[in-house]
C-alpha cells in the first residue's frame, strides 16, 4: 500500500505515517546513530567515538528506544567479556534513502547559509567608515 500526502488541509489522522516517522527520528542524536549504523554493525564504543559529543547514558537510551521500535537490533556475542554489536534491522535499512535525502538537503541548506553569510560580510560597512 502506497501512502501519499493529501493536498487537503484536514488534520492528519492519529496514525499519520509522517507523524510516525517524525517521532522515530526525533531527538538530536537519532539520525546520527542511524547514519553510522547504515553501512555496518557497530559496537557501542565505536558509535560513541564516531558520533562524538554524545554521553553514554543518552546513547544507551536512544539505542534501547530504537531497538524497541524494531529499527535497531542488539546482538550479544558470547565472548569474555561479552561483545555487543548494534545493526539496523530490515525496517531500519529502509531508512537509508530518507537519511541520504536529509543529508543532501542539509548540505544544500548549509551552502545557502554560507552564501548568505558571505554576502552579509561583503556588504557590511568597513569599520570606521562613515556613511553619508
Q: Can you describe what's shown?
A:
This protein is mainly alpha-helical. It has a single domain (24-119), classed as Orthogonal Bundle (Arc Repressor Mutant, subunit A), CATH 1.10.10. Helices cover 53% and strands 11% of the residues. It contains six helices and three strands. The protein has helices at 17-25, 30-37, 44-51, 56-68, 90-93, 96-123, and strands at 42-43, 72-77, 83-88. The chain has a three-stranded antiparallel sheet with strand order 1-3-2. The longest helix is centred in the C-terminal third of the chain and has 28 residues, at 96-123. It is flat, with a radius of gyration of 21 Å. The mean pLDDT is 87.
Amino acid at each position: 500500500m502506497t501512502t501519499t500526502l493529501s493536498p487537503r488541509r484536514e488534520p492528519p489522522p492519529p496514525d499519520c505515517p509522517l507523524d510516525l516517522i517524525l517521532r522515530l527520528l526525533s531527538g538530536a542524536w537519532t539520525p546520527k546513530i542511524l547514519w553510522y549504523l547504515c553501512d555496518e554493525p557497530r559496537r557501542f564504543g565505536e558509535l560513541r567515538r564516531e558520533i562524538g559529543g554524545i554521553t553514554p547514558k543518552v546513547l544507551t537510551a536512544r539505542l534501547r528506544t530504537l531497538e524497541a521500535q524494531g529499527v535497531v537490533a542488539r546482538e550479544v556475542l558470547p565472548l569474555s567479556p561479552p561483545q555487543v554489536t548494534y545493526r539496523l534491522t530490515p525496517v531500519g535499512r529502509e531508512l537509508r534513502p530518507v537519511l541520504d535525502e536529509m543529508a543532501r538537503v542539509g548540505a544544500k541548506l548549509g551552502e545557502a547559509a554560507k552564501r548568505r553569510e558571505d554576502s552579509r560580510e561583503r556588504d557590511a560597512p568597513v569599520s570606521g567608515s562613515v556613511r553619508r
